[in-house]
Specification:
This protein has eight helices and seven strands, in the order H-H-H-H-H-E-H-E-E-H-E-E-H-E-E. It is an alpha+beta fold. It has two domains: 26-133; 176-370, Histidine kinase-like ATPase, C-terminal domain (Heat Shock Protein 90, 2-Layer Sandwich), CATH 3.30.565.
Length: 382
């Protein structure tokens, strides 16, 4: 049987009974041969027990005759599949296609009768026995109805099998396209987050250039370190440790800007720092905590970054003291909107961003990430 067309995305396992290249696997061929041999054995057993058969033949004869005939049909079925694959590529009309199938059925009959009876004559001769048969026209008349039905059945199964494979290849192509689209959208979100962060940092540095040039130079160095660390690796994911390091760098930049008016603490169990999370998912939350609250020496801004895990997965919380800042209208901004979109693309509905404004002293934003990334992330499974 020729290799069936299949487009397999590297992240998607190959279809059942097929190898990574889309070809029928060894397990398929073993099952194929076993199915035909089982059919031949069943027919031989029925023939062996048929009371109408004249006695005097050896017990092995019905098994050799029936199983040999079925084995030839099994091999010819592979040829039928190849013939159907060829006809599908021709694009012939109905009349010409009907003629091609008549020719295929005739070839199937001729090959089946020729190979089956030739093997019988050869085997019996090797055993020192004589194999007798009726005249050839009678043999053809006996075998033709069965072979025509068998050809029609095998051709129908071949059409159905190829239709299934084309549908499967189409679905896999859709899944690959959705995955690639999700990766492109994630990359676009990353491109948006970097300029957004850089714009705010430059504003912070500009505020210090005339006021404290030395501190401005230190901040420029910290920003350079931050950008170098954030661009060190490509891809939509990072470890929680990398995200925490970026958050600490950002907090250090802002602490310099506000002359120590920021009291930041990162309290995350070391066992969780190896968890994979969407890249640049934490820094925008820290940025928003500072952006929407007035930090002054007489009323320092407190920021707490914590994380933990429960039965539902991983949670990460960024909390900031409210101070005397006015309450936020919706608890969101551009940075939070980008984080929500990133979570939706990366995890679908399995992740969430929760905003808690119930505490008069603290404003909290909590990320909830699933224990494992869903298999169909980036869109609904087709």
């Amino acid at each position: 049987m020729s290799a069936l067309p299949s487009t397999v995305h590297p992240a998607v396992p190959p279809p059942p009974l097929r190898d990574a290249g889309g070809r029928p696997s060894r397990r398929f061929w073993i099952g194929y041969a076993a199915a035909w041999l089982a059919l031949g054995f069943a027919l031989a057993l029925a023939d062996f027990q048929d009371p109408r058969v004249v006695r005097g033949r050896a017990p092995w004869e019905p098994f050799f005759l029936e199983m040999g005939s079925v084995a030839v049909v099994g091999v010819l079925t592979l040829g039928v599949y190849g013939w159907i694959a060829f006809l599908e590529r021709t694009g012939w009309g109905a009349l010409r296609m009907a003629g091609a199938h008549l020719a295929g059925a005739a070839a199937f009959l001729a090959l089946h009768v020729g190979v089956t009876y030739a093997s019988r004559f050869a085997f019996y001769a090797a055993m020192g026995l004589e194999y007798r048969t009726k005249p050839w026209l009678a043999v053809i008349a006996f075998e033709a109805p069965k072979d025509l039905v068998t050809y029609a059945l095998m051709a129908g199964l071949a059409y159905a099998w190829r239709l299934r494979q084309r549908e499967q290849a189409h679905l896999l192509q859709i899944e690959r396209a959705r995955g690639e689209l999700a990766e492109l959208r994630l990359a676009r979100l990353g491109d948006q987050l970097h300029p957004h962060f850089l714009f705010n940092c430059l504003n912070s540095i500009a505020a210090l250039v005339e006021e404290d040039p030395r501190r401005a130079v230190t901040m420029i160095a910290r920003v350079g370190d931050f950008l170098r660390a954030s661009l060190r690796e490509e891809g939509p994911e990072a470890s929680l440790r990398e995200e925490l390091d970026l958050a600490r760098s950002y907090l250090e930049i802002q602490r310099l800007r506000f002359e120590g008016a920021i009291d930041a603490r990162v309290e995350v169990p070391p066992a969780l720092e190896g968890r994979r999370v969407p890249r640049l998912v934490l820094q925008p939350l820290v940025e928003n905590a500072i952006k929407h609250t007035m930090a002054r020496p007489e009323s320092p801004l407190a920021i707490r970054v914590t994380a933990g895990s429960d039965g539902a997965g991983l949670w990460i919380e960024v909390a900031n003291s409210r101070g005397d800042a006015p309450p936020r209208a919706d608890g969101a901004g551009r940075g939070l909107a980008l984080v929500r979109e990133r979570l939706a693309l990366h995890f679908g509905e399995a992740a969430a961003l929760e905003v808690d404004e119930s505490d008069a002293a603290w404003f909290r934003v909590r990320l909830r990430l699933p224990a494992e990334r869903p298999a169909a992330a980036g869109g609904d499974a087709p």
